[in-house]
Structures are given as structure tokens and as C-alpha cells.
Amino acid sequence: MLKIEHLSKSFGKKEVLKDLNLTVNDKSIVGLVGINGAGKSTLLRSIAGVYEPETGSIMLDGRSTYHDMETKKMIAFVSDEAYFPIGSTIESLKLFYESMYNFDPDAFRKYLDMFELSPKASISTFSKGMKRRVSLLFALAIHPKLLLLDEAYDGLEPLARLHFKQALTDLLEDEEVSVVISSHSLKELEDICDSFAMLENGSIMRGGDLAESKENINKYQLAFTDEHTKDDFKDLDVLQFEKEGQVYKLIIRGDMESTETRLREMNPILLNVLPINFEELFIYELEKKH
Amino acid sequence: MNKNYFKWLIKSRKVSLLFFILIYIGFQLIPFTSFDPAYPKDTFIAGANIGCVLSILLTMAMPVYLFAYIHRKSSVDMYFSLPVSRKEQLITNLLLTWLLSYGCFFAGTTLIWLVHARDVILMRTFVSLQLFSAFSIAVLILFHSAVYALTNSVFDGVVMIGAYTVLPGIVAISVMSFLYSMIAGRNIPSDSLVNQIGILLSPISMFFINTGALLEPEYSDTGFMTLYLLPMSFIMVISMILLRHHFINRKAERAEQLSDDILAYPFIINVYLLLILLDLSWTVVSDSFEGLQFVYLLLFFIYIVASFVYKRSIKISYKPIVLFLIFCIGTMGFAKLGWATEGFGLSSLPYNLYSEKYLCYQYRADVKLEDLSLDNSDNYDENYANVSFILTIPTENKADYKDIIEKLEAYRKQSRSRFYNRNTGYSSVCFEVYNKKAEDDYREYNDYSYTGAYPFSEEELKEISRYCDVTVYPIINKESGSLKSGDLETMTLKDFLDFRTEHKEITKTE
After folding, report:
1. Is B78 on the interface with A (CB under 8 A)?
2. Which one of A199, A283, B232, B256 is least enclosed by Cβ atoms within 10 Å?
3. A53 to chain B: nearest residue by CA?
4. Residues of chain A with pLDDT > 70: what percent?
5. Is the pLDDT of residue B342 over 80?
6. Which residue out of A50, A58, A90, A97 would a mutagenesis test of the B interface target, given it has the greatest number of B Cβ atoms within 10 Å?
């Protein structure tokens, strides 16, 4: 289990992470979302042990991810800016990962085939998507306990995404692995994440089980014969209020059943409840905040 | 050290490491091609000297090569997330650099020694050379790595290594310039720390000087300086502290940022400016401002360009301009104060006349032929005489020379006072006082040199000629009867006086 407590990190005078707390359970895939500059990459780099926490702690199974080298061995970090030494090939990088991590040659061969990569070609000749595949290949081949993926979907074409999702699912089935994945493609995250953490101004604005959170926020379409204003719904946690003629569209946070009961008390001539997706959840939470 | 990391470093860089090794050994064995059985020692010395130079270059190049990853955002992510602690990374990289730099030196010098120089280079000398080289190379690796780690980009790292390597030279030049321009007689003993400051700040100089002393003690002024081990160790400790701060505890986010650490550009730019401005100020105060306007302008231009390089932006602000002006005024004020206090009192420091076996007085002056008085004509169409003498006094016989020593010391006082009260410009009299270890020794110790003094009168020269040869070389630039330039040779004072009586035409002025 990854446990982050009271984590702070500043770049000069700018405080990028502020008293951040986050727990990632084993066999969980957490989608890390937030607007640009929210601190997603900084958080992932801090977990990976690239940045030292200024305050607080980051523990994986009770051991520091910055100071404990055995713990670091169990973390695979795929950065948003992948680095490959000049002239390196997959073969030469294999040497690197074999020397540093618990490298699994069988897994390596399996993912090499899956990602359709040539082991002897110079990585500098690869496209951005292929380079991303190389990073993912090695991240998966070292059997990490914690997999950190920063903008992991960037540059991957649909088939590679599919392969990668499959690989992640396999990994979670077979091993006690946790995944923290940041991406701007919330639709993609929705497919694989079971929980999420929404970063805003360096701290977790909202997080938890994704399905539960989605259930807790719903879109309600209503029609009334008489006129209503937003104030008529003030006892509900309305995230968004829209009115077109006699039709009202409301995004309301709260238990669906009790909210529906409350709305029915207002005698609507029409009441539809629609689920929201992850992207909408993100947008409404952000709008509410601002 | 981390074994896995070390193995990976070797395996992943085997081609480049092999290239370095082959080039190194190849260069070091060049003296084999010119081996002379009559002088086998020369082959060893040449090989060792080439080895020193190559090792020094490697101690500069290898940190740039191995630590470049701390300066790139993408590589920082990879290396700092490795399950190898920063300390282990540092130690492993340093060890590899040392093994390469010293290992090649050891291999090359051992090969030459075994094949050609075993009989002429003593085992003790060879071992001392190896031990000192191993230590010096370690110091240089730590120093260059620390300087490289001060910065936040590869370019800045290379610039800083260059700047810190040259800095002791600039300090030495500034100190020398101060001694020559501001202190009458350069009144500082040879072994004074002031004279050594440039060397003591430079591990490269100390490495070279002591290696030279071990290999060729006959040409060394000081012999092997055990004292140098102290500043070298100090530099080693400072480098370790810097590496702890700038590598082990380095903030990964520094990569690709401005190199604004206080010891990087802010220190280097301002210290270089200050030292060069001090050099100029010594000259302005002791000589004249004439011709230096352009130098000041050029220096300002270079300072602004250096600020642009540091800040990576071409934006003119008032701050560097004001700082430059403050430095100019400050250094000029400091130099004026130095001149007013006769070199901050250093010119009046007591000195020991008899620190070595011989005390020597040397005098050279371009003077008028008619009375051997001061020739300020600065006209090369005129006839004049070059008068000189070297009086060498064995210190054990100083009592026999008491009178002349008193006279010459009085002259020395006069020379010192004249130094601070002279008119600027041409100075035709040079008076030196120094010590020697042996009469035929070419090396001079405690060399105090005075320029611009009044020349000795004929009477005084006559008295001096009782103790040593006073020679006169008449220089004929003007048609003087049958005498032409080049006709005359150096003669004794007595011969000259007779000659002048016979050839009065040479003293005629129009």
C-alpha cells in the first residue's frame, strides 16, 4: 500500500504540493487528474524518489520511497519525458534494467512481442509512440510493486493502448501491484481506473472510488408546469443549474434515491436521471470549486 | 560503491572507455619513439609529463561525461529514481574516473620505467611519484566534479570547470601586478604565501610543481613541497562538502535551470571582474590611465556579455551597469589607498639580507655618457652608456663589506622613496637585491627589484668598483667622429673614464 501523508514540495517560492495526503491500495489503479500545473508530475516524481519530500512522507508498504533503495527497486516510473542515452537500443537498455532491477526476461520477451518492438534498432530512430512503448516495456518487465505512469497514453495509437490496458489488467490479476496513472485523456482512465485523485493547487481536491463518486453525482432532467429558480433547489448540493423553457438540467451531488425523492416532491411532469462520466465528474468538481 | 551500477557503467560505456584508454596510453608512449639510450631518464620524464597532462584532461572530461545526467530533466528522472542512492552513484562515478585517469598513468609510467628507466629512476622516486599522482588525481577529480555539480546545465558546467581552472592564474597575475606596480622593490620574500597564492589555489599547479620536483629535483627551486599536501587536502574536503550539497542532496528540479548558485556564475563573473579591475587600477595609480580607456570599455562589454550568458537573456538592466561602476570606483579607491600607504605598508616590511649563502646587489642603468647621470632623453638618436655591476657578497664575510652594504642599503631606501615619488613614464635605472645559494647558481631568492631610482654618481661607482667589476657599455647612436655604433665593447669603469677623456666628441650634445 502506498501512503502519502502531509506531503509538501516547493520550487523556489512556488509551493507545488501542499500538505497532500493520498492512499493507494494494493491492486488498485488510481487515475491522477488535474489541470496543467496542478502538480501531477511533481507528485509522481516525488513518489518515484526523484524529488525529496520537503515535509511529510511517502511510504510504500511502510518504507520510504526516497531513502529506501529496496523499495525503489519495486517502483517503475514512466516519466512524461522518456530518456534514452544516445545510441541506445532495447538490448542495451535491457543491460541497464538487468543490472538495477529484478528483471524478468520472460516478461520482457512477452511484452516485446506484444508491443512489436525491434530489440536491435536504435531508439533514437523511434517515433514518440514507439519510445513510449519501450518505456512501458521495461516498466512492466521489472515486475514493479508500484507502477507510476505520467501521461502514459500520450503518443500511443489505439491498438497499443489496447495492448497496454490488457497488460495492466494481466498484471493486476497476477500480482500485488498498484498503479498511479496521470493523463488528460479521462475517457481512457475511466476504462481502467478503479479510483481517482483530483489534484488542484497542489492538494487532493477530491478522490476515492471512481464508481462510487460517479454514482454520487448525477444528471437530472426535469420539466415543471410552473416556474422554478435555483433557490428552490438550495437544500440540494447543486453543482450545475441550467434552464431551457420549462426544462431544467441539474447536476446534483448526493445519494441518487434521496435526491430523486426530494425532486419528486416538487411535482415535476418529467424526471430523468442520467449517469455522468469521469470527464464530466472532473469538470463539475472543478467548476464547483471555482 | 554499487557493484551493479559500476558493472553497468563499464559495460554500457566500454567503447568510449576503451577509446580513452588507447588514446591515453598511445600518447604516453610517444617518447619511446625518440628514446636515446644516453638519456633514458628523459624518456621517463616525457612519458610522465604527458601522463600528467592527459590525466588532468581526463579529470575534467570524465565528470562532464559521467555526471551529465544531473543536468537534463529527462535523465534526472531516470537516474534519480534508480534503486541506487545518490551517494553510491557519486562514489561509483568518481571511482571509475579515478581508475581510468590514474590507472592509465600508472600503466604508462610503469611500462616506461620497467623497459627503459629502472636504472636511472630510483624505486623510491617511482613509488613517491605514483603515490603523489594517485592522490593529486583524486583531488582533481573531486574538485572538477564539485565545480561541475555547482551548475544546472552541461554548458555551464564546462564553462565553470574552465573558469575555476584559470581563476588561480588570474589571482596570481593580479598579485604579481600588485607587487610590481604598488610595492617598491616587490618587498616580499620568495617563500611568502603572497607569492604562492596562485599556486596554492590551483591543484593542477601543485600537482605539476611537485611532480617536476620529484622527476627533476636539480631544476626545482623548492624541491618536493610537502606543504602542498595541506591545501590539496583542504580542496579535497571542500569539494566533498560541495558534492554532498550539490550532488547527494541536489534538488532534481535544478536541471536545465539557470546556474545561479552563489559559487557558479555570480561568483565567477564578479571575481573575474574584480581581479581584472584591480589589475587595471594598480597600473592606473602607479603609471597612468593613458591607453586604458579602451580596456575598460572592452571589459564592460565582456562583463555584459557574461551576464547575458548567465541569465540566458539579452535584457539590459541598470543593475550590472551600476555594479560595474561601483567596482570601478571601489577598485580605484582601493588602489589609491594602496599607493598612499606605500603598498599598504608592505614596502616597509623588514627583510633579511642574509637568508642564503650569498647576498647580491645588481645595478643596471642607461645614463648620460658625460657624467653617468640620469638620462631621461628617451631619444634613441642620442649616445648613452649602459652601466652595470653585480656585487656578490658571501654572507660569512659580510663584516668585510660593512661599509659598502651600508651605502647600498641607503641607496635602496632612496630607491624605495623615489618609487612612490617618481614621475610617470620612462625609467632607466634598475636596482636589484637578492640572495643565492651558491655563487654559480642561476636561481635568485628574495629578489627585490627597484626601478626609477637615481643613478649612482661616478664617485659612488668608483667606490663600488673597489668591490666588484663595474662595467660600462657606451652606445653610439649619433655620428661621433670616427666612432660608429657597434665599434665599442663593454669596458670597465676605469677604462671607460680613460676612453671618454680620449674621445670627448662622444659626449657632445646638439
Report:
1. yes
2. B256
3. B251
4. 98
5. yes
6. A50
Distance CA(B110)–CA(B126), nearest Å, equals 9
Q: B366 with B452: CB under 8 angstroms?
A: no
Domain borders along chain B are 3-253, 271-346, 362-507
B116 neighbors B44 (Cβ within 8 angstroms):
yes
Q: What is the mean pLDDT of chain B?
A: 87
Q: How far apart are CA B267 and CA B154, in angstroms?
A: 18
Backbone angles phi, psi at A203, to 5 degrees: -135, 165
The answer to whether A211 faces chain B, any CB pair under 8 Å, is no
Contact B84 A100 (CB under 8 A): yes
Residue A13, C-alpha cell as written in the block: 517560492
Lowest mean pLDDT among A204-218, A225-239, B265-279: A204-218
Nearest CA in chain A to B77: A50
Contacts of residue B162, defined as CB under 8 A and 6 or more positions apart, other chains included, come to none
Burial degree of B180 (CB within 10 A; 0-12, 13-18, 19+):
middle
| pLDDT, tens digit (0-9, with 9 covering 90-100), for A101-114 | 989 999 899 888 88
Judge: A101–B83 Cβ closer than 8 Å, yes or no: yes
pLDDT score, position B425: 44
Cell of A278: 469521469
Please, which contacts does B230-233 make with residues 24 or more away whose CB atoms are closer than 8 Å?
A: B231/B200, B231/B201, B231/B203, B231/B206, B232/B135, B232/B136, B232/B139, B232/B203, B232/B206, B233/B139
Residues of chain B above pLDDT 90, percent: 40
Interface test with A, best of B82, B89, B254 (most A CBs within 10 A): B82
- CA A54 to the chain's CA centroid: 23
Which chain B residues contact residue A81 at CB under 8 A? Answer: 73-74, 77
Q: How far apart are CA B214 and CA A22, in angstroms?
A: 64
- Smallest CA–CA distance from A65 into chain B, residue: B81
Q: Tell me, what's the ipTM? A: 0.83
Residue A39: closest CA among A172, A150, A155, A140: A150
Identity of residue B98: W
Whether domain A2-201 has CATH 3.40.50.300: the reply is yes
> Which residue in the set A79, A92, A100 is minimally distant from B83, CB to CB?
A100
Q: How far is B22 from chain A (nearest CA, A)?
A: 22
CATH class of A216-289: alpha beta
pLDDT in tens, A233-247: 888 888 888 888 888
The segment(s) of chain A belonging to CATH 3.40.50.300 are 2-201
Which chain A residues are Cβ-neighbours of B85 within 8 angstroms? 69
B268 vs B162: CA distance, rounded Å: 11
And the C-alpha cell for A91? 538490448
Size of interface A-B (CB pairs under 8 A): 62
Q: Do A100 and B76 touch (CB under 8 A)?
A: no
CB A54 within 8 A of CB A60: no
